[in-house]
Design goal:
nucleus; cytoplasm; alpha/beta; ThiF/MoeB/HesA; ThiF_NAD_FAD-bd; 328 residues; 22% strand; Rossmann fold; eight-stranded mixed β-sheet
Length: 328
């Protein structure tokens, strides 16, 4: 089955249409996705206008449910897309396992954005049981993340032959295995079958895999974005988004995250503590475009089966112009 056919036959659920969600929807709809449901119970706030481009610029809509306001703008991108919406709250659907399973079983792939940690883990427990791949993404101003539990994925990648031929049953890392290799001597190509296995997202929050994939020098250079992003999963979002978070609180919690992941606390710098104190939970349109575009591209790669998807944590640090992928 070709990539376009898979795009047309895959039913995708997107939970929360914020800045990243808007970018994901744009890229998937333009990319040819046929069936998309958007689940979002939020009401329009004034700050949404600055980073969510589907919203009509009408201040009188503030306080109204957001998703019904954007349907026409999304369909303008591709009028053949089968677009549906669900304005139920997360709790009303997912606090009941039978109801959650009935709802989620309608979809082949799920993308959730800006989701609290407890909801994320709860959702992932359902998607695992139903064998449905899950992407989770979020941002804090100039920083962001994508976490994936695609359960298991097999891809066939074609590469030029090197001096040393690739061999079957070779581990690329703890989650990625070359299971088979066929050789095209005439074209000097290798067709490499790669199996990616994924862990539940809950296990990422206590993973000690980083020291196994980074040497001492790389660990010292690790961006503070990693521990600070994971710190904010356990920090309550301020009522007023313009309020800064307490720097000492962030430092203390980030140090605990470093200990949990077995990485040096020295990576936490005053500069990054101040960045995250001011930017936590904020949306910045250019960074949302970067994260949303990357996520949508990975979904298409996942469906193509011609490339190995992200496995399993992408961190975005636009201060350093870095987007490293870590295996947690």
């Amino acid at each position: 089955m070709g990539t376009q056919l898979r795009l047309r036959s895959t039913k995708i659920l997107l939970i929360n249409l914020g800045a990243i969600g808007s970018e994901v929807v744009k890229n998937l709809v333009l990319g040819g996705i046929n069936s998309l449901e958007i689940m979002d119970s939020s009401k329009l706030k004034e700050e949404d206008f600055s980073s969510q481009f589907f919203l009509p610029d009408k201040p009188e809509n503030i306080g109204k449910l957001k998703v019904p306001l954007v349907i026409d703008q999304i369909k303008d991108l591709n009028n053949r897309v089968n677009l549906t919406i669900n304005t139920a709250t997360f709790e009303s659907v997912f606090d009941y396992e039978d109801r959650a399973n009935d709802y989620l079983s309608n979809f082949d792939l799920i993308i959730a954005t800006e989701m609290p940690k407890a909801f994320m883990i709860q959702l992932n427990s359902y998607t695992r049981k139903l064998n449905i791949p899950l992407y989770v993404a979020g941002m804090h101003g100039m920083f962001g993340y994508v976490l994936l539990d695609l359960i298991k994925h097999t891809s066939v990648v074609t590469k030029d032959m090197g001096n040393q031929p690739r061999r079957p049953n070779t581990k690329i890392n703890s989650n990625k295995l070359i299971s088979d290799v066929s050789y095209d001597e005439k074209e000097k190509k290798e067709n490499i079958t790669i199996i990616d296995t994924y862990k539940p997202i809950s296990e990422m929050f206590s993973s000690k895999e980083l020291p196994n994939q980074l040497n001492r020098r790389q660990l010292k250079r690790l961006s503070a974005a990693f521990p600070l992003i994971f710190t904010l999963f356990d920090v309550e979002k301020p009522v007023y988004i313009e309020d800064s978070l307490d720097v000492d609180m962030l430092r203390e919690k980030a140090s605990l995250v470093c200990e949990k992941h077995d990485i040096p606390t020295a990576v936490i710098t005053d500069e990054y503590l101040n960045f995250f104190s001011r930017q936590a939970f904020t949306e910045f349109a250019p960074v949302a475009a970067l994260i949303g575009g990357c996520l949508a591209q990975d979904v298409i790669q996942y469906l193509s089966k011609k490339e190995s998807p992200i496995n399993n944590c992408l961190i975005v640090d636009t201060i350093r112009s870095e987007m490293p992928i870590y295996v947690l």
